[in-house]
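Inverse folding, one chain.
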């Protein structure tokens, strides 16, 4: 007997959507992006810590490897953001999307020089929570994707908020995180 798996776009025909909790969508988005970060860090062999209080940085990601020359373990700081205002990148689409940050937050992320590098990771999700993930016997799919950018040196251009361009060529996955850590591990920047 084959077990039917739901397709993207809602429950299988004839099946009602599950009764979801009443937690605010923004709180659910925050939880989803944390889950994504945990999955990427696990696949990359990194450890995570959450600063308390966070002071504008959500996570510290550490990576130990014999190839690091500046220390046996290096760390970066990660600020997570999540939005459903933007569609995912389509083939032939623009190589970047606009994302707006409060100037105070941008100043923290853009500071240079730094002892510990920082990156911004922005997750794009579908507007409807029903489309955020699907599980099967061989995988768990999260939609859509996270992208990363190093904003070191980025100028503040707006009065209260500044729009930055996040390249869609910088997908945040385990390989990207390992490459970031390898560059930081030899004294470079993300």
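Residues assigned per position:
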């Amino acid at each position: 007997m084959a077990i039917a798996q739901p397709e993207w776009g809602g429950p299988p025909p004839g099946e009602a959507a599950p009764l979801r909790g009443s937690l605010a969508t923004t709180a659910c988005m925050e939880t989803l992006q944390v889950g994504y970060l945990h999955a990427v860090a696990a696949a990359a062999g990194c450890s995570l810590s959450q600063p308390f209080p966070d002071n504008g940085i959500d996570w510290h990601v550490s990576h130990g490897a014999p190839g690091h020359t500046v220390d046996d373990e290096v760390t970066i700081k990660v600020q997570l953001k999540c939005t459903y205002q933007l569609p995912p990148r389509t083939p032939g689409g623009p190589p970047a999307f606009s994302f707006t940050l409060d100037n105070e937050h941008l100043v923290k992320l853009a500071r240079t020089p730094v002892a510990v590098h920082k990156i911004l990771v922005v997750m794009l999700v579908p507007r409807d929570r029903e489309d955020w993930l699907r599980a099967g016997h061989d995988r768990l799919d999260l939609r859509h994707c996270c992208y990363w950018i190093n904003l070191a040196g980025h100028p503040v251009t707006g009065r209260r908020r500044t729009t930055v361009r996040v390249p869609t060529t910088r997908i945040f996955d385990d390989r990207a995180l390992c490459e970031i850590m390898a560059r930081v591990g030899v004294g470079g920047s993300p």
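Strands lie at 47-49, 59-64, 73-83, 96-102, 118-124, 133-135, 140-142, 145-149, 161-167. Helices lie at 25-44, 103-110, 174-185.
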